[in-house]
Amino acid sequence: MTAAGTLVPFALKEAPVSEPYPPLAETVARIADLCRASGKSLDKELGVARLSRAAGVIESDVETLLAGGTPPEPDTDVMVRDRVRFLYRTHTNADGKPRDIHDIAAAIRQTTTWTRKLVSGEAKPNLVVGHALCKYYGVALGFLTDPPADALKRELQISRFNLEVEVDPEQALRELGVMHMTSRNPNGFERSQLAAIAKMVTSITSDLDMVKLQLNRLGTPEDGR
């Protein structure tokens, strides 16, 4: 990115194939280190209520996972339906009321009748509808399909990354595989520019990774939607 704000080419190294997320304990330990370095509150970053809402995981499962335990493995079909209900119930308007059913139906391109069944758990979304629903609510594409452990790891990775960018944006870029960037500014990139580039790169790579996971995890509901 130049001083004028124009992004110039950068190179990415090829990342090795690995598990979607690192071990939970490793991420929590890194968040603790970053909180100490940045002066942020660790209790806030690991707040059970916040993580539950962001991950779509019930608070008791969040507590179990943070304590190093393993919650019961959910039935995938039931989990997806529960996550849709959870999303509708908890991601509300500013007045605390659920989003308008007509707006949701328009966003996912379905009838209001079927959409009511969807948010009540009577219907299950397919890949396209699930993606549109997540986009409408502004949540991760894996919100409906990630098992509890992966869902929590996903949200903690977001917290870790945001802290990493604040503390050391160059390190964050290296972890993303950015090996080289060229700036027309002789003084190089400013810290805020590095942070912006890091967020852009992680957004792109996260979307691609989540699409791959969605293709494997999200089935087609009985009514073919």
Automatic annotation (TrEMBL):
<dbReference type="InterPro" id="IPR010982">
    <property type="entry name" value="Lambda_DNA-bd_dom_sf"/>
</dbReference>
<dbReference type="GO" id="GO:0003677">
    <property type="term" value="F:DNA binding"/>
</dbReference>
<protein>
    <recommendedName>
        <fullName>XRE family transcriptional regulator</fullName>
    </recommendedName>
</protein>
